Amino acid sequence: MSDDALPTTTSTLSAVELATELTIAWLGNPNTRISADDVPAFLQAMHATVTGLAGDTAAEIPADATTPAFEPAVSVRKSLASKDHIISMIDGKPYKALRRHLSSNGLTPEEYRARYNLKSDYPMVAESYSESRRATAMKIGLGRKPALETTPAETTTEAKPAPRKRLKLA
Prior knowledge:
The chain has helices at about 15-25, 40-55, 75-80, 100-105, 110-115, 125-140, 150-155; strands at about 85, 95. By secondary structure, the protein is an all-alpha fold.
């Protein structure tokens, strides 16, 4: 490529020229498959994006558009109606635990609670699932303190296992 084909600074390019250069580069990618009828729409979208990034349309965006209002799929009462699952306010589907669902939607539990104006103690795990996990943890011994050392008197009263017999190989 020659030096005159590429500009030295992006400030010398207008938004139309920059959008055109980006569109040409995108269409030059062999993995890009687009029909000829879609190119003008793509060029317009690229131009709108470039001018938006340049700050030309900052005055045109209304203040209300910066924070979109999210409508919950279900009410808070309905989302917590069952002990077996929690219904997501994002898509209205039941989940035993919401954390993975929230992370796949790019949210943390705090952001989810703030988005739908929920209290800070709104659960992220269904009650029955939490109980079953708690029972499993208790069964395998999690949450207990280590056992105290046994005294010699306690060991003498317990039955000792019989010694193993060894087999002789011929």
